[in-house]
Amino acid sequence: MQKSLLFLVNPKAGKAEIKNNLLDIIDRFVQKEWTVVVRTTQYSGEVTDIIKKEACHYDMIVCAGGDGTLNEAVNGLVQTDCRPQLGYIPAGTTNDFAVSLNLPRDVCYATETIVNGVPFSCDAGIFNEKFFVYVAAFGVFTEVSYSTPQPAKNLLGRAAYILEGIKSLAEIKTHQLTIEHGGERITDEFIFGMVSNSTSVGGFKMGNSADVAMNDGLLEVLLVKKPRSLADLQGVVAALLLNDLSNPCLYSFHASDLRLFSSEEISWTLDGEFGGNLRDVRIEVAPQAYSIMVPKKEEKHVKNKEEAVEELIQKTLTESGSLPC
């Protein structure tokens, strides 16, 4: 019996690589005897709306886009009574969540993961009444992800975030916050904070990936205190780049439920998109909220030199139209 697949495509994501391979991707799904329905997104939030209305009619839902598109897909799935398998083709600028789950960045490899991979039950975060896939954050740099113009993201990729972020260093704002978790209470001035279910944020490794499990019912929390000097700030940046969480300006812990509140509104970002200006936030984990296709362990996407050369040749041929997915 043929299975049904809903393919949701964000044509504006990343450098639009998905457009060049769209027919080959669809053909690969059809080869696996899936009946494919394709929808291109026309507005922000449409992926969520479509999945909420139509998810129960499909065995598989595949979304192609950036982290924001994946966020919309998960928000739609968790609001349905049925939970079809989710496939993700990373086509954004940084694709942090794809890195954390070892999903291939190449759209053809990502398609093969959906076709031949295995389902993985993944946690999600709940931010007040919204869901997030991999990160909720506030403070310095966080506005960059949704304020950077899309043409700049497409042209410069990850560098666009860095260039925009440098502009904000001259005017770092601090936030007086109280954080409650596991019976503990922290009150301090912070320049940055994030609650994540990811080993990579902004395209950079954050913390020790060995301590991060995507299905353990825990979220990772990182808070950066206000540096007292330029030397302190430089030390914090160096510590983050080196994944050294022992710096005295850093708080780092795991939590399944926490509350953050302040006397002033704080601007939040959820999976790289604007999450609201809020004074009181409760964040908790939704354990194994959805199932997403990932590579089989024996197919872990680590390439030796020969494989890397072969991929480069295949990618070149694919872009020239000579090789299908």
Provide the descriptors you would attach to this structure in a database record.
10 helices; 15 strands; elongated; 31% helix; alpha+beta; 325 residues; 4-stranded parallel beta sheet
Any overview of this molecule?
The protein has 325 residues and is of the alpha+beta class. It has two domains: 139 residues, Rossmann fold, CATH 3.40.50; 157 residues, Tumour Suppressor Smad4, CATH 2.60.200.40. It has ten helices and 15 strands. Strands 5, 6, 7, 8, 9, 12, 13, 14 and 15 form a nine-stranded antiparallel sheet that branches. It has a four-stranded parallel sheet with strand order 2-1-3-4, sandwiched between helices. The chain has a two-stranded antiparallel sheet with strand order 10-11. The chain is elongated. The two termini are 24 Å apart.
